[in-house]
Amino acid sequence: IFADFIKVMGQQQIPGIIIDVRGNGGGSALMEFAVLSYLFSPENPLSLSIADRYSYNPLTNEFVRDPYTMQLSAPPTTQPYLGDVVVLVNQHCVSACEFMSYWLQASGRATIVGQYSTEGGGGNVNAITMPGGFIFNYTAGTDIDNETDMPTFQAVGVVPDVRVPVTEETEQRKLEGGDPVLEAGIDHLRRLAFERLGHEPTTFVSGTVTSAVPTGWKPNADGTEYTSPDDPISLGIIAWTASAETDPDAIMAGAYPEIEKAGEIETDIGTWSIYGSEINGTYNVYSVIVIGGQPYIVTASTTDERLVPLMAEFILAPALHDFSVAESAAPAEATPANERITLVIELTTNPWLWTSFTDPAEQFDVETPEDYTITFNTDGTVNIKADCNNASGSYTADDNGSLSIEIGPMTRAMCPPGSRSDEFVQKLGSVANFFFENGILYLDMMADGGTFQLASASEHISN
Q1: Among residues 152, 170, 194, which one ends one of the domains?
Q2: 139, 217: one domain
Q3: Distance (Å, rounded) from C-alpha 136 to C-alpha 196?
Q4: CA end-to-end distance (rounded Å), the chain
Q5: What's the pLDDT at 302?
Q6: Structural domain total, the chain
Q7: Domain check: are 16 and 139 in the same one?
Q8: Based on the domain organization, do 354 and 400 belong to the same domain?
Q9: In a domain, 333, yes or no
Q10: Do both 301 and 185 map to the same domain?
Q11: Can you tell me the distance from the alpha carbon of 161 to that of 158, in angstroms, rounded to the nearest whole number?
Q12: According to the model, what pLDDT value does residue 275 have?
């Protein structure tokens, strides 16, 4: 089974695996060596010479230290797994389980993760048959680590490289069905993947800004945003033109009234102000700097909250430290009041509440705007609340104001009389363009079918 698992992991190029040996009582050195072998190639085998055997020799009446000479690698004609490996352990991992964990840790092949060290009870065992058929087992020797000159793990156990704390929070997570040790193992594999990211210089803002983007990331249509291949993280850079404001705190407070400032980062080009927000399940980290009177905003976003620290460290930080502005770049002109704005990034700043609708035949206000909302997520998806129903879908947009919304699955509850549930969703599916004016979002339907007016959720609540 393990051989088949390794084969599939290699074929699918899975970057990391987790081996969970918590509670494993050992007992089979053969199984231990079999598992170990599939994690090493013939060109770089596991050499057991990192430890020596230390046992009593009854012929000489003394303890003797002998080197291990065995090497382990994947069987011929099989492909070893050479990606990252995490091993989960606890205090009930004993004997062969401990030996396997030790060899992987001592050779640098795997990272050990756990709340507790292993039991510390492994060793070379001899058996003596006693009168009456009783069998007495005793430890006849131990192994000595050649680097520390101490027993490998006897009496102390294999100590985790990543120690998960035993706290009220972690124990409560267990009671609720969570697994903080497994979560820590996944987080460690993610960190290893982020540490290996390569970066390349990329231009933004019509070629006037250069920054670092992870190699292989995909740009959107106008090159203002790049997204990771599996879509959980995006990085965007814009020159702020929605107002003449040049104070970072004032800019962000105006755009996102509920935003929180997280701190500042110093780079060669100046001081960045850092802010964070969570909007409908999307976690955003904004960085603002003013260069030559022009504010610039770098935004990193993810839908996975646990990726936020890694995103900030390995995506956002390199982008800020490698940020440069061409000497020929002139400050972009601020958009005057009442002038239309068509920046895609503005779509994703808020949930939008439907306040009114106008077409050649009628005009009406929506009595309960909070019951009719649309959220444009940075990953190109939309979430729609239509009175007592909910819908999802996708959208495409560009900074020229083009917008199309594809409606996906929708619930079909029976809403109260007078509901505009179906009307709202149907009209959204016919939208062709968007623009902002004085903070209001307008959505134009195709063929002069009418215009939505929507207010940002934060502004609506504050009013």
Answers
A1: 194
A2: no
A3: 51
A4: 62
A5: 92
A6: 3
A7: yes
A8: yes
A9: no
A10: no
A11: 9
A12: 95
The yes-or-no verdict on residue 345 having pLDDT over 80 is: no
Which percentage of the chain shows pLDDT scores above 90? 62
* Mean pLDDT value across residues 8-13: 87
Domain coverage including residue 383: 344-462
Separation between Cα atoms, residue 254 and residue 393, nearest integer Å: 29
Does one domain contain both 30 and 157? yes
Q: Quick: pLDDT tens for 388-439.
A: 999 999 999 887 788 999 999 999 999 999 999 999 999 999 999 998 887 7
Tell me the pTM.
0.69
Q: In the predicted model, is pLDDT for residue 206 greater than 80? A: no
Q: Which two tokens stand for residue 350?
A: 């808020």
Does residue 202 share a domain with residue 190?
no
Same structural domain, 29 and 42: yes
- Mean pLDDT estimate for the chain: 89
| Rounded CA separation 201/215 (Å) | 9
- Report the interhelical angle of 96-106 vs 29-37 (nearest 10°): 30
Among 194, 228, 255, give the residue marking a domain's end: 194
Q: Is 249 helix (H, G, I), strand (E, B) or coil?
A: helix
Residue 245 tokens read as 């404001």
Bridge partner list, 443: 434, 452
Cβ partners under 8 Å of residue 369, min gap 6? 353, 354, 355, 455, 460
